[in-house]
Specification:
Shape: globular
Low-confidence stretches: none
Oligomer: single chain
Distance between the termini: 14 Å
Number of domains: 1
Number of strands: 8
CATH topology: Rossmann fold
Strand content: 15-25%
Order of helices and strands: EHEHHEEEHHEHEHHEH
Bound molecules: 2'-deoxycytidine-5'-monophosphate
Structural class: alpha/beta
């Protein structure tokens, strides 16, 4: 069973989904992290598409959720920190426009979620990857709130950047993610809209947890 949260960068989807997973003891899948790993390979290939595809085919991408953290591995090396660099953030939307890469990542995700109960976050999970998800949320927030939140996260991790740089990166990604041809960021018709601008983190986690908990209970009976 899978529950999905889609929304623009910095809207709080991944921290919320992680907290919900932790609270309800279910699995968490960060689809953006998989696009970021692919982007690491793209950068290794010096942005050459053909070299990139060859390298991707030879690479092994694996991941799991443990102790509140989503871990991603490239050829068994933990790259969970490397994928958060601004270099990767600046190139990831470009990689995410490539339809063959999208199908590759979608396949990886569909295989993984067959066995357990998952909450996953991304851009197109409700509209393209898991159209029959048990429950769908679409999370939005003002650009300023999103930039400030992402800036705080990066600063805490010791990644050097400025609020302006983060804001420009988020606004640029919103633009590319929403206007690309292949599965753009868009609210699914059957998704529940959550605007986090006026909510505390605890409120948004509780709102979603309560609904997912009910669903899991029904699913088990
Ligand atoms: O959630 P994030 O910021 O880590 O995602 C990184 C990028 O990956 C984002 O700018 C767009 C892309 N992405 C996507 O196209 N589809 C998804 N399901 C998840 C992420």
């Amino acid at each position: 069973m899978i529950v999905v949260i889609d929304g623009p960068a910095g809207s709080g989807k991944s921290s919320t989904a992680r907290a919900v997973a932790e609270r309800l003891k279910i699995q968490y899948l960060d689809s953006g992290a998989l696009y970021r790993v692919a982007t690491l390979i793209y950068l290794q290939a010096d942005r050459n598409r053909e070299v990139f595809i060859d390298l991707l085919k030879e690479s092994k991408i694996s991941f799991y959720f443990k102790q509140k953290k989503f871990h991603v591995f490239l050829d068994n090396i933990d790259v969970s920190e490397d994928i958060r660099s601004m270099k990767v953030s600046d190139a990831v939307s470009e990689v995410a426009t490539m339809p063959d890469i999208r199908s590759y990542i979608n396949q990886l995700m569909r295989e993984q979620v067959k066995k357990d109960i998952y909450i996953a976050d991304g851009r197109d999970l409700g509209t393209a990857v898991f159209t029959d998800a048990a429950m769908k949320f679409f999370m939005v927030a003002d650009l300023n709130d999103r930039a400030e939140r992402r800036f705080r996260e990066l600063s805490q991790k010791g990644i050097e950047t400025s609020l302006e740089e983060v804001k420009a990166n988020i606004a640029g990604r919103d633009q590319v993610d929403s206007s690309r041809e292949a599965d753009p960021l868009k609210q699914a018709e059957d998704a529940i809209l959550i605007n986090t601008s006026g909510l505390t983190f605890e409120e948004q986690v509780t709102q979603i947890s309560n609904q997912v908990k009910k669903l899991i209970t029904e699913h088990k009976h």
